[in-house]
Amino acid sequence: xxxxxxxxxxxxxxxxxxxxxxxxxxxxxxxxxxxxxxxxxxxxxxxxxxxxxxxxxxxxxxxxxxxxxxxxxxxxxxxxxxxxxxxxxxxxxxxxxxxxxxxxxxxxxxxxxxxxxxxxxxxxxxxxxxxxxxxxxxxxxxxxxxxxxxxxxxxxxxxxxxxxxxxxxxxxxxxxxxxxxxxxxxxxxxxxxxxxxxxxxxxxxxxxxxxxxxxxxxxxxxxxxxxxxxxxxxxxxxxxxxxxxxxxxxxxxxxxxxxxxxxxxxxxxxxxxxxxxxxxxxxxxxxxxxxxxxxxxxxxxxxxxxxxxxxxxxxxxxxxxxxxxxxxxxxxxxxxxxxxxxxxxxxxxxxxxxxxxxxxxxxxxxxxxxxxxxxxxxxxxxxxxxxxxxxxxxxxxxxxxxxxxxxxxxxxxxxxxxxxxxxx
Length: 424
Fold this sequence. Notes:
This protein is of the alpha/beta class and 424 residues long.
């Protein structure tokens, strides 16, 4: 891969005058640090003096959500914080997202946070709730970003580091593509390992869930376009587009269920079937769209050829012309065993053994998997449930993150970098 990491440009869109967000709460109430005193000393001292800043960053970002590839002021805010620490952030050539390094030396590990919001209205009633109608940080990316900024600030205060820590503030995760931008900008070149955290409202605050192997699922996007043959004026002289779409809509899931190992968690869900109405004849064209998920990395690699084969065999008797687009949106996040062991060691050192818990594989997609196709790493789930009331879920208007997770995340990410760099 040709390196372009040294040639990152200022925002290509949004202009040089894009300003950071104004703080929502300059002096928020203190948040307890459940691991205070566990060290190292410089980390304890930084958190004791600056944890309210992390809370303020989080609330400011939360109140000002920006959707994918429009995260210009979010990017400006991140860059401004990093520059205030004496660091040298670089904005991705796409105009959103930031890469920044701390430390020196030949060895390098990466920490990643995603920065984009969702087109989901907020209904939490918090004073720092979204100010943007129809958009919110309903997946906790504001938490991830504030944690990585906190880890950056703390690491910048360390007396010395055993290598370089590369900070990846990634845009456009919710509709995948941002990981490709970071990789194309040289974000993982020279990186030995990469780590990431994601909010989990099913896990108690103060705990972090880890897992070796697949932790999320691959998600592919299917679009089938069909065209009729014949005149369309007589049924016996024209192929039936609606019938053809129905054959695939019912037949493809049924055939996949018989051709793919059911233990792989492979699921096809259709989201659209459309054939424009034709008053004086049968429709001439139609489209079928859906998402295909699997929890098995091997099966994920086999699916494109298998789907093409099945769709062809289903449509051949119908006489329609067809074009099938199979887009690989995100691969499985397949946690590396050695990196996961290092992350577990780091969590235990940072927070104590009680903080470490297991987690299960989900059917959700996450483009952290693209990084793991280039470098080994591990992706963990950060507990954000208070322990009281309903646990809720991600991507919901009522999503709420307990802010006690902020110091937990800062400590875990800082220790992950240190542990990985100190490992042989």
